[in-house]
What we know:
InterPro entries: ArAA_b-elim_lyase/Thr_aldolase (IPR001597), Low_specificity_L-TA-like (IPR023603), PyrdxlP-dep_Trfase (IPR015424), PyrdxlP-dep_Trfase_major (IPR015421), PyrdxlP-dep_Trfase_small (IPR015422). It comes from Solirubrobacter phytolaccae. Its cofactor is pyridoxal 5'-phosphate. The structure is a single chain. The chain is an alpha/beta fold. It is built from 14 helices and twelve strands. It folds into two domains: 235 residues, Type I PLP-dependent aspartate aminotransferase-like (Major domain) (Aspartate Aminotransferase, domain 2), CATH 3.40.640; 87 residues, Aspartate Aminotransferase, domain 1 (Alpha-Beta Complex), CATH 3.90.1150.10. The strands form three sheets. A seven-stranded mixed beta sheet has the order 2-8-7-6-5-3-4, sandwiched between helices. Strands 9-12-11 form a three-stranded antiparallel beta sheet, covered by helices on one side. Helix 1 crosses helix 11, helix 2 runs parallel beside helix 11 and helix 3 crosses helix 10. Pyridoxal-5'-phosphate binds next to helix 3.
Amino acid sequence: xxxxxxxxxxxxxxxxxxxxxxxxxxxxxxxxxxxxxxxxxxxxxxxxxxxxxxxxxxxxxxxxxxxxxxxxxxxxxxxxxxxxxxxxxxxxxxxxxxxxxxxxxxxxxxxxxxxxxxxxxxxxxxxxxxxxxxxxxxxxxxxxxxxxxxxxxxxxxxxxxxxxxxxxxxxxxxxxxxxxxxxxxxxxxxxxxxxxxxxxxxxxxxxxxxxxxxxxxxxxxxxxxxxxxxxxxxxxxxxxxxxxxxxxxxxxxxxxxxxxxxxxxxxxxxxxxxxxxxxxxxxxxxxxxxxxxxxxxxxxxxxxxxxxxxxxxxxxxxxxxxxxxxxxxxxxxxxxxxxxx
Length: 341
Ligand SMILES: *Cc1c(COP(=O)(O)O)cnc(C)c1O
């Protein structure tokens, strides 16, 4: 009986079948376009996301950083995005340092916003006192709002509002495939109208590292400059890309199991004293609940071999993934019962 590690879906370890695929992969020099795995992966992701091209990068953070650099021009350009989004809370200020972006953080419910919210954030064109509105960035699913799936109609309205104002659009798809599996909407429909979008292989997909940023051939050509600049141009990256290809073949449909496990966890949590959660709000693999003492709760759970993350003065996050099965969820619930009693 090992640890039940619900800290994040980044905690997955490559399975032995994935390791075999990686070990046997034919590889080459990635930055000379000679790695067959990376070439295949980029073509596959471009098609999946309905884009012309894609580039393989070491991390999702680098996808966001390069995308912001592609869209934001020097001279006071502004990005409109949710205040809890990853580029604001977890990229070391990169969009400011690397792209020179002004950020317009939206404080709207559930990590999502509407076309009207975008319109309300627009600066007046030609106003020399204001930053210049340039980019809208969305997170599918919303991480810090509990893995919510942007409804397709809402995405389309946001795209239309941004386009009407001449803005670029970027989708942080760290958990895009969770949204696809939960909603049944194909990835390419969710990314329609976006200039750039990316997929992470290290979250629920269970690969050890890597992400792919997709967009027009022109934007991805330009992205290669920044990949080079940041030291993200690689060599025999096919060892890693083979893991990502394996994940696309074998670890997408099974995300439904993670969602079912998260729903069971949420329903169990709702029964516990001192815990506040709406189980119906859990749509994918992220479970966020309220408690008076998140740090204390997590410390006591840790003593019972269950790991969750305190993400604020009142909030705890648990994330399901392929290394946590239904039986492990029951063990987590038993530990929670003891700790909350
Ligand atoms: C994890 C995550 C990222 C960053 O991905 P890494 O591969 O860890 O760099 C970006 N956005 C969201 C929403 C994430 O959850």
